[in-house]
Write a structure and sequence with these properties.
Elements (H helix, E strand, L loop, with lengths): L3 E4 L4 H13 L5 E6 L8 E3 L6 E3 L2 E9 L5 E19 L14 E7 L16 E3 L14 E3 L8 E8 L2 E9 L8 E5 L5 E6 L4 E4 L2
Protein backbone atom coordinates (compact mmCIF):
# COMPACT_ATOMS: atom_id res chain seq x y z
CA UNK A 1 0.00 0.00 0.00
CA UNK A 2 1.38 3.40 -0.95
CA UNK A 3 2.48 5.75 1.79
CA UNK A 4 1.34 9.32 1.38
CA UNK A 5 2.26 12.33 3.48
CA UNK A 6 1.67 16.05 3.71
CA UNK A 7 4.47 18.53 4.44
CA UNK A 8 3.27 21.90 5.63
CA UNK A 9 6.67 23.55 5.18
CA UNK A 10 8.02 22.25 1.91
CA UNK A 11 11.72 23.22 1.91
CA UNK A 12 14.23 20.42 1.52
CA UNK A 13 15.22 20.45 5.18
CA UNK A 14 11.69 19.84 6.34
CA UNK A 15 11.24 17.12 3.73
CA UNK A 16 14.31 15.40 5.17
CA UNK A 17 12.72 15.53 8.62
CA UNK A 18 9.39 14.22 7.34
CA UNK A 19 11.11 11.32 5.57
CA UNK A 20 12.91 10.46 8.81
CA UNK A 21 9.63 10.49 10.78
CA UNK A 22 7.97 8.15 8.28
CA UNK A 23 10.95 5.80 8.30
CA UNK A 24 10.93 5.75 12.11
CA UNK A 25 7.17 5.10 12.42
CA UNK A 26 6.47 2.24 9.98
CA UNK A 27 3.21 0.39 9.56
CA UNK A 28 0.77 3.15 8.65
CA UNK A 29 -0.97 3.75 5.32
CA UNK A 30 -0.79 7.53 5.28
CA UNK A 31 1.04 10.21 7.23
CA UNK A 32 0.47 13.89 7.83
CA UNK A 33 3.53 15.56 9.32
CA UNK A 34 4.05 19.16 10.35
CA UNK A 35 7.49 20.31 11.48
CA UNK A 36 6.92 22.76 14.33
CA UNK A 37 10.53 23.31 15.50
CA UNK A 38 11.74 26.43 13.75
CA UNK A 39 14.73 27.49 15.85
CA UNK A 40 18.26 26.35 15.08
CA UNK A 41 17.11 24.09 12.28
CA UNK A 42 20.23 24.47 10.18
CA UNK A 43 23.39 22.46 10.62
CA UNK A 44 22.15 19.32 12.33
CA UNK A 45 22.12 15.59 11.80
CA UNK A 46 19.86 12.90 13.21
CA UNK A 47 21.22 11.17 16.31
CA UNK A 48 21.13 7.54 15.20
CA UNK A 49 22.13 6.34 18.68
CA UNK A 50 18.85 7.54 20.18
CA UNK A 51 15.31 6.53 19.31
CA UNK A 52 12.59 8.99 18.48
CA UNK A 53 9.74 9.26 20.98
CA UNK A 54 6.06 10.00 20.52
CA UNK A 55 3.43 11.36 22.88
CA UNK A 56 0.02 11.35 21.22
CA UNK A 57 0.38 13.50 18.08
CA UNK A 58 3.81 14.94 18.98
CA UNK A 59 7.00 13.29 17.77
CA UNK A 60 10.42 14.20 19.17
CA UNK A 61 13.48 13.57 17.02
CA UNK A 62 16.89 13.47 18.74
CA UNK A 63 19.41 15.42 16.66
CA UNK A 64 22.95 16.73 16.97
CA UNK A 65 23.21 20.44 16.14
CA UNK A 66 26.50 21.86 14.91
CA UNK A 67 27.71 24.98 16.69
CA UNK A 68 30.14 27.50 15.22
CA UNK A 69 32.81 26.16 17.55
CA UNK A 70 32.51 22.79 15.84
CA UNK A 71 30.87 21.11 18.81
CA UNK A 72 27.81 18.92 18.29
CA UNK A 73 25.10 19.71 20.83
CA UNK A 74 22.14 17.36 21.49
CA UNK A 75 18.83 18.90 20.53
CA UNK A 76 15.25 17.91 19.73
CA UNK A 77 13.19 18.53 16.60
CA UNK A 78 9.45 18.42 17.28
CA UNK A 79 6.76 17.44 14.77
CA UNK A 80 2.99 17.08 14.82
CA UNK A 81 1.71 13.92 13.17
CA UNK A 82 -1.48 12.25 12.10
CA UNK A 83 -1.18 8.54 11.43
CA UNK A 84 -3.78 6.85 9.24
CA UNK A 85 -4.54 3.18 8.75
CA UNK A 86 -7.23 1.07 7.08
CA UNK A 87 -9.01 -0.70 9.93
CA UNK A 88 -12.17 -2.67 10.68
CA UNK A 89 -15.22 -0.52 11.45
CA UNK A 90 -18.49 -2.02 12.69
CA UNK A 91 -21.26 -1.79 10.08
CA UNK A 92 -23.95 -2.60 12.65
CA UNK A 93 -24.47 -2.69 16.41
CA UNK A 94 -22.90 -5.83 17.88
CA UNK A 95 -24.11 -7.25 21.17
CA UNK A 96 -21.74 -8.35 23.89
CA UNK A 97 -20.70 -11.99 23.52
CA UNK A 98 -21.42 -12.19 19.78
CA UNK A 99 -18.99 -14.13 17.59
CA UNK A 100 -17.19 -11.79 15.20
CA UNK A 101 -16.84 -12.29 11.44
CA UNK A 102 -15.96 -10.21 8.42
CA UNK A 103 -19.60 -9.48 7.60
CA UNK A 104 -19.84 -7.37 10.75
CA UNK A 105 -17.28 -4.85 9.52
CA UNK A 106 -16.13 -2.64 6.68
CA UNK A 107 -12.65 -1.29 6.01
CA UNK A 108 -12.09 2.43 6.35
CA UNK A 109 -9.13 4.77 6.63
CA UNK A 110 -9.02 6.22 10.14
CA UNK A 111 -6.74 8.52 12.10
CA UNK A 112 -5.26 6.05 14.59
CA UNK A 113 -2.74 8.41 16.16
CA UNK A 114 -4.38 7.98 19.56
CA UNK A 115 -5.83 4.50 19.00
CA UNK A 116 -4.00 1.38 20.17
CA UNK A 117 -4.36 -2.27 19.18
CA UNK A 118 -6.80 -1.81 16.29
CA UNK A 119 -7.65 -4.59 13.83
CA UNK A 120 -6.64 -4.17 10.20
CA UNK A 121 -7.22 -7.72 8.90
CA UNK A 122 -10.31 -9.92 9.03
CA UNK A 123 -8.09 -12.90 9.84
CA UNK A 124 -7.28 -11.29 13.18
CA UNK A 125 -10.86 -11.71 14.43
CA UNK A 126 -11.12 -15.45 13.74
CA UNK A 127 -12.19 -17.22 16.96
CA UNK A 128 -12.99 -13.93 18.69
CA UNK A 129 -16.17 -12.46 20.11
CA UNK A 130 -17.20 -9.07 21.44
CA UNK A 131 -16.32 -8.48 25.09
CA UNK A 132 -18.68 -5.50 25.28
CA UNK A 133 -21.29 -3.73 23.16
CA UNK A 134 -19.83 -2.44 19.89
CA UNK A 135 -21.65 0.48 18.33
CA UNK A 136 -22.14 0.84 14.58
CA UNK A 137 -19.34 3.01 13.17
CA UNK A 138 -16.94 2.13 16.00
CA UNK A 139 -13.36 1.12 15.22
CA UNK A 140 -12.67 -2.44 16.38
CA UNK A 141 -10.01 -2.47 19.09
CA UNK A 142 -8.47 -5.37 20.98
CA UNK A 143 -10.10 -4.14 24.19
CA UNK A 144 -13.53 -4.79 22.62
CA UNK A 145 -12.78 -8.46 21.91
CA UNK A 146 -11.93 -11.68 23.65
CA UNK A 147 -11.10 -15.20 22.52
CA UNK A 148 -13.94 -17.64 22.01
CA UNK A 149 -13.94 -20.37 24.67
CA UNK A 150 -13.27 -23.89 23.44
CA UNK A 151 -15.73 -25.24 26.01
CA UNK A 152 -19.11 -23.65 26.67
CA UNK A 153 -21.10 -23.70 29.89
CA UNK A 154 -23.22 -26.88 29.81
CA UNK A 155 -21.01 -28.82 27.39
CA UNK A 156 -20.53 -32.53 28.02
CA UNK A 157 -16.82 -33.35 28.32
CA UNK A 158 -14.65 -36.21 29.57
CA UNK A 159 -12.93 -35.79 32.93
CA UNK A 160 -9.58 -37.60 33.14
CA UNK A 161 -7.97 -38.67 36.40
CA UNK A 162 -4.49 -40.08 35.78
CA UNK A 163 -2.67 -42.15 38.37
CA UNK A 164 0.49 -43.70 37.02
CA UNK A 165 -0.49 -45.58 33.88
CA UNK A 166 -4.17 -45.62 34.78
CA UNK A 167 -6.49 -43.06 33.18
CA UNK A 168 -9.92 -43.06 34.82
CA UNK A 169 -12.49 -41.29 32.67
CA UNK A 170 -16.00 -40.11 33.49
CA UNK A 171 -18.50 -37.92 31.67
CA UNK A 172 -19.06 -34.53 33.28
CA UNK A 173 -20.80 -31.27 32.48
CA UNK A 174 -18.91 -28.00 32.28
CA UNK A 175 -20.18 -25.41 34.75
CA UNK A 176 -18.48 -22.48 33.04
CA UNK A 177 -16.74 -21.52 29.83
CA UNK A 178 -13.30 -23.00 29.35
CA UNK A 179 -10.09 -21.96 27.61
CA UNK A 180 -7.07 -24.09 26.76
CA UNK A 181 -4.89 -24.85 29.81
CA UNK A 182 -7.23 -22.95 32.15
CA UNK A 183 -9.15 -24.38 35.09
CA UNK A 184 -12.94 -24.74 35.12
CA UNK A 185 -15.57 -26.32 37.33
CA UNK A 186 -17.24 -29.53 36.14
CA UNK A 187 -20.06 -31.61 37.61
CA UNK A 188 -20.63 -35.36 37.52
CA UNK A 189 -23.99 -37.04 37.02
CA UNK A 190 -24.13 -37.51 40.79
CA UNK A 191 -23.70 -33.74 41.18
CA UNK A 192 -20.13 -33.87 42.51
CA UNK A 193 -18.10 -30.79 41.62
CA UNK A 194 -14.47 -30.88 40.55
CA UNK A 195 -11.91 -28.42 39.27
CA UNK A 196 -10.29 -29.47 36.02
CA UNK A 197 -7.75 -28.14 33.54
CA UNK A 198 -8.92 -27.81 29.94
CA UNK A 199 -7.01 -30.07 27.54
CA UNK A 200 -9.12 -29.48 24.45
CA UNK A 201 -12.78 -28.97 23.51
CA UNK A 202 -13.75 -32.47 24.67
CA UNK A 203 -11.39 -33.35 27.50
CA UNK A 204 -10.40 -31.96 30.90
CA UNK A 205 -7.90 -33.17 33.50
CA UNK A 206 -8.87 -33.26 37.17
CA UNK A 207 -7.01 -30.59 39.13
CA UNK A 208 -6.40 -31.98 42.61
Amino acid sequence: MNILFFVFNTDSLNKEIVDYVIKSLPGYDRYEVEVISQKSMQGFKFDSLKQISRSSNLVYLPVLRNEKSGRQVPNIVTCKVKLFKHVLIANRDIKRGASLNGNDFVFGEVDVTDLKNVFSDEKEIINKRSSSFIKKGEVLKLSLTEDLPIISNGDLVVLHSINGLADVQIDVTAQQEGYYDKTIRVKTRSNKLYKAKVIDSKNVLINE
